[in-house]
Amino acid sequence: MHAPSPSRLLSSLVAFCALTGAAHASDDESSSASPSPSSTATTTSTVTPCVATSTNGAFYDLRPDIAVVPEKGVKLARGTHTQDYQARGYDYGYNITLNICAPVVKGVEDVVGLTSEAWAKVGAWYEKGGKVYSLGQESGALKPRGRKLVLQYTGGSPCEPPEDDKDDKRKRSTGVHQGAAYSKYSDDEDEDRDDDQTDSDSDKRKHSNASKKKTRRKSATISFLCDRSPDTSTAVSFVGTDPDECSYFFEVRSQHACAGAEPHKPGSVGPGGVFAIIFFIALAVYVIGGVFYQRTVVKQRGWRQLPNYTLWAGIWSFLKDIFVILTSSCARFLPLRRGYRSLNTSSRGRYGNNDDENRLIDQLDEEWDD
Q: Which CATH topology does 51-160+214-257 take?
């Protein structure tokens, strides 16, 4: 078999380099055309719902208080809420159903003033006079204010207008316009009449636009208080509402509303990692500094260059002695080897039975007497 010529090797090498360069170029184009998920993740910031961190570093996590819909075949954690929270209205004549940082578990329909798409996002509601009213769409934006947490639901059902606004609506519905009560018009006054009519129409449109802008919707403000009692579950209390029944206020007592330490995020260094880094840095400084001192100042060589060599050598000898003692002590509990028998420690001894011993003793006594 003949060896390939240098020219052929050079041509094959050039072809391989060209193919490799084309592959790298295609990879660069694909990477530039479609950014990686990691790059997009770094550019966009995500906020975890129902989690907040105050300016002084206190961390709050109310996710265990969220009522969730139980799924078939999925085992929920202990203490998970599967039903909505109920707040008694007492003298208001109705009770209020709500959830924390999520829509209500029990869905609602035919909500006053909301579209069918918004029904699934209702975070609090009540029923009065056979009608369902929303107190706002769900939200997970917790806001720490001092030692309390505040959560707000907005965009609920329209608020009832005051009595003055109702009277204005009745007047506008009758079509009465001030300065427009004319019984007769001459031919010369037709243009003035058209101008007045145009002005009245523009005023009506402006007034209607202003009324739309002034439309208020119900909202709910939930204040969380820290309750460290282990036997007390999360309790929701209805504080009250404004005279227009437009803004509702609630108070929630929960052990999860207490400030805690923020867990370290994946990829960041936690407390254990910081301690390990400090430990290894101190160990490196101790070893390197000790070796440098022992070698340059004390003029030691070999293992004696290590700092405190006699101390570490004594510890190593102590550990070896402990190991020998333990192994020798445990050897007594090992089973005997095959082929060995225990010594005979019976009363017969090496001379046979007791009769032989007695005869020997009598014989010796007779010889002694002689």
A: Cation-dependent Mannose-6-phosphate Receptor; Chain A (2.70.130)
